[in-house]
Structures are given as structure tokens and as C-alpha cells.
Amino acid sequence: FFLQEQMTSLPPFRLAIPKKGRLYEKCSKVLEGAGLEYRREARLDVAVCKDLPITLVFLPASDIANYVGLGDVDMGITGEDCVAEAGVDVKEELKLGFGKCRLCVQAPVRKQVKSVEELAGGRGCTSFPQLTKRY
Q1: How many Cβ atoms from other residues are within 10 Å of residue 6's Cβ?
Q2: Are strands 54-59 and 13-18 parallel, antiparallel or unpaired?
Q3: Phi then psi for 18, rounded to 5 degrees?
Q4: Calpha distance 111→134 (Å, rounded)
Q5: What percent of the chain shows pLDDT beyond 90?
Q6: What span, in angstroms and rounded, lies between the C-alpha atoms of 134 and 132?
Q7: Is the pTM of this model over 0.85?
Q8: CA 108, 109, 115, 118 torsion: positive or negative?
Q9: What is the pLDDT of residues 63-105, one digit of tens each?
Q10: Burial class (CB in 10 A: 0-12, 13-18, 19+), 41
Q11: CA 53, 54, 58 angle in degrees (round to 5)?
Q12: Are the C-beta atoms of 88 and 67 separated by less than 8 Å?
């Protein structure tokens, strides 16, 4: 009885997970395996867990590290690439062993580029501007 009363008086723990894609699917399986029951309404990015003081916040994977770093959520599941791009100070608690990302430099085959140095000063595009600057 004491434990149940204590749990209901705690503020909800806010856990951010990706709102869609492969990481969302994997996270959903992890949460299910951990016994977290929740119902996510269509077009709603927040769900409250049944019988536990946990609120799930569904966010774009690329935003999760910032939300954790700013303290807007208590913990999040996202890729190491997203954490590195965000440049926020967060602690990795556990490697989950899913989700793979490889960042690489690409150029048209017709250019016959042999090293990345040949691209210096040229135009490029990236989804990771901060990591690209550091590179």
C-alpha cells in the first residue's frame, strides 16, 4: 500500500521516444517488453502509461537529445548521431543494440574523387551541419 501511494504522488517521469520510423518500431517493442502499457491517440504526441507514473513524449528522433539536454524530458531514446549533431551534454545510460547509422562523404562517380580533400571549397549538402563543420 505504501509503495502504491508513493508512486501516485510522484510527478510523471517523461520519456521521449521517436515518433515514427524504424527507431519508433524498435522502441515500441522495448516498451512492450518492459511491461509499459499505454494508448497513443492518433495525431497526439503524448501518452500516459497505465499503472505507472510515466508519460511518453513522441518526438522527431533528431530533437530528442535537445529535449533531454534542456531538461524538458527526463530521458530519451535516440541515435548517437542525433546526440552528436545536437552538441548537448547528456549521459548515455544504456546501449540498446539497435539502430545503425553511418555518416559518409559522397561524390558523383563521374567526378572520380579519390579523397575528401579534393572536395574542399566545393558545394555540399548535409542533414548534419554541426558534425560536418567539426569534420
Answers
A1: 10
A2: parallel
A3: -60, 140
A4: 25
A5: 58
A6: 5
A7: no
A8: negative
A9: 999 999 999 999 999 999 999 999 999 999 988 888 888 888 8
A10: exposed
A11: 160
A12: no
